[in-house]
C-alpha cells in the first residue's frame, strides 16, 4: 500500500496548505492522533462522520513520507485496523487533494478519485 487517505473540509485543507501541515480536528485532538483511512475504509468513514459536511475533500497521503509517525491500530469499536498519524503530516506528503462528488446526497468514491 503506497497511499492512505484523509477526509476533511475545504477550509481544513486550505488551513493545512497555509500552515504547511495537516491540522488536527476536534476528534484528532481528543484522541491524540490524526485519523486516516485506507481506500476500503474511506466510504464508511465519510458516511459515519462526514455525511453533513457540504464540501468534503479526499487527501491522498504517501505512506513512505509519513512512515515514522504512522501506526496501524484497532478502532474503539473493535475489528478494523486504521492508520493513525502521531505527529505532523506535512503538506509535502500529500499527493493530491480532490473534492468528493455527491449523488443524491451521498458521497461517491469512484476508483479514479483515489489516483
Description:
- This protein has 115 residues and is α+β, with helices and mostly antiparallel strands.
- The chain has a single domain, classed as Protein of unknown function DUF952 (ADP-ribosylation fold, Alpha-Beta Barrel), CATH 3.20.170.20.
- The chain contains 4 helices and 8 strands, in the order E-H-H-E-H-E-H-E-E-E-E-E.
- It has a 3-stranded antiparallel beta sheet. Strands 2-5-4 form a 3-stranded antiparallel beta sheet. It has a two-stranded antiparallel ribbon with strand order 7-8.
- A hairpin with a 6-residue loop joins strand 4 and strand 5.
- The longest helix has 10 residues.
- The relative contact order is 0.24.
- The model has no long low-confidence stretch (mean pLDDT 93).
Write the layout of secondary structure elements.
Elements: E1 3-9, H1 10-19, H2 26-31, E2 34-35, H3 42-49, E3 56-62, H4 63-66, E4 70-74, E5 81-85, E6 94-99, E7 102-103, E8 106-107
Antiparallel strand pairs: 1-3, 2-5, 3-6, 4-5, 7-8
Q: Please indicate the count of domains.
A: 1
Approximate shape: globular
Major beta sheet summary: 3 strands, antiparallel
* The level-1 CATH class: Alpha Beta
